[in-house]
Amino acid sequence: MERVHELLGRMLFMRRFEERVIELFEQEQFEGHYHVYNGQEATALGAMDAVPRDDYMYTTHRNHGHLLARGADPVALMAEILGKANGLVGGRGGSYHAAWPEGNVPVTSALVAGNIPQAAGTALAAKRRGTGQVVVCWFGDGAVEEGAFYETMNLSALWKLPVLYLCENNSVPARYRAMGQYPSSTHAAPALTEVVRPFGIESHAVDGTDYDAVHDLVRQLMERLHRGEGPFFIEARTSRWPGSYGVWPQLTGGRFQIGWVFDPASAPEVVREWTTESDPIVLLARRALERGAIDRQGLEALDREQSTAVDRVVEAALAAPDPRPEDTFRHVLR
Amino acid sequence: MPVKTYAEALCQSLIDTCEAEPNLIFIPAAFGGLSPHAASFRPFYARYADRILGAPIAEIALCGIGVGAAIGGLRPVIDVLSASFLYQGIAQVVNEAANVLYMTDGKTACPVIFHAMQGVLPGEAAQHNRCLSAELWNSPGLEIVLPASPEDAAGLWKTAVASPNPTVFMDHQLLMGLTQDVPDHVDPIPFGQARICREGKDVTVVATLAAVPRALEAAERLAREDGVAVEVVDPRTLVPFDEETVVQSVRKTGRAVVADETIRSCGVAAEIAARIQERCWGVLKAPVKRVTLPDVPIPFSRPQEAVVWLTPEKIAQAVREVLAWR
After folding, report:
1. Taking CB atoms and an 8 Å cutoff, what residues of chain B touch A55?
2. Fold identical between B3-181 and B195-324?
3. Which of A91, B16, B159, B277 has the fewest CB atoms in 10 Å of its CB?
């Protein structure tokens, strides 16, 4: 009971965080392209709860959820998104390149598949230096279309590198999430899980909206990686939040309302189907309600709590100082 | 001091750095390329086979693995063989390695070395003759090393291995047989220190990599035939660039020629010429002249290839032209 309460709280925090990111962009508090993690909260939390802090993580342009799940300071992450001096990487990266070097998230490439060979390289370093560390490498289904992906799979398999390749396929319709095969319009393979098998890389599919399923799978594979097995590939299947379809994220249907958990028909039509079938928060909350693990009052209180926490994060981040123009030329070279 | 070839001096430096730096690894290693002097690297291969990882032909992955391995605490050398092949992996060099330190506000260092042979070789035609130092110089965050002598190859290599930054170390297949008296173990040569290869009072020739011995040959001929004293300056590293030494030389001579094997438009010579004109406008007695590859792909056939080659004759001709300027 405590666990599902805490888990729902963390997922709601992520959701409210991303909603505020969209609003802050619309209020012109920052510029540039950015990506939000709505709908994939269970994947990041399920995976990161199974990854020791000493291990490395490489993330992507869609990194906010990964970093929050990893335990990065939300104020420093929001400050980074706003380009502030006390951001995770001093405001140098923004949303695209948010990283957490102190938390073994060394750097964030925002180019599709840019991080995949880097993760392999860090795994090679860990293996040769005998540090016992393992690398988790996040990427989206688009990265599986890139040549760098295939070159790196070949090398990872040849050198038996300790990497967990964690592909988030957020383009899967609800009914396909738990099935063995899901055809993609932009990939000739019958399923993304198939593409690494010719290299001899063990491959798994998991429903990315299911915290427990993700957590159990990642925990098992992490243990095996730490025993010297690997690399492994996971395709975590989620369904794209309607607000993430356009070139720019849109708060489609407005802010998430906790009432939609109890009355899905009250959700605006644009998000109704997704909310009912694919929102990991709604799916988890409904299961918890059915089991009596939480009640309506408790859920509403939890949401208010998390919304307030995010408000404080935004307030602190907005109040943070900007980087100084005279520091523009620092850190080109050491 | 023993006489050593460029290849022999570099080989000894590879051995010295492997001894000093246990985290130095090579993915893969093919020093000397197709040159007969490639055999001079055998002592390194024999002694440090365990530091060399055989690898598939996968430049983009290997360059990225270099980035990640450097972040993870190794000192990886990604040997892409020919600079032309660097294009296959260029995204990880110019858009990943070069940006790591800056994008992380100085928190994550990426001390990877990309090694390639750069320069035009006979009969290699359009696709295997690319010179990338201009493209690389256009990507802040990379150190660019162009050693033109045996001692420079050995000494600059040591600095590259010790550097905390991503470094592109580009030697030249046609320089592998160049000889010089060098000590058994060459000291590290700091980056950003140009070498005055020959002193002279009449014209400064700034030359890089293979253009250095050709500029020295031109200088020798001009001294003999025209009684002209040419000063040859080799910057040795483009990043960091030793502008002071170049500027001091041009202030002394009042005339400058820049010789470099990158393509003329937006090439290395164009950048150096611009810097000279910015700093030496008042003392220049003639416009700065460039000797480069022309704006054309490299042809295969001999008579056409001869048109594009950067030769001592072309350098000598450029020197005569800046001297004749009124």
Report:
1. none
2. yes
3. B277
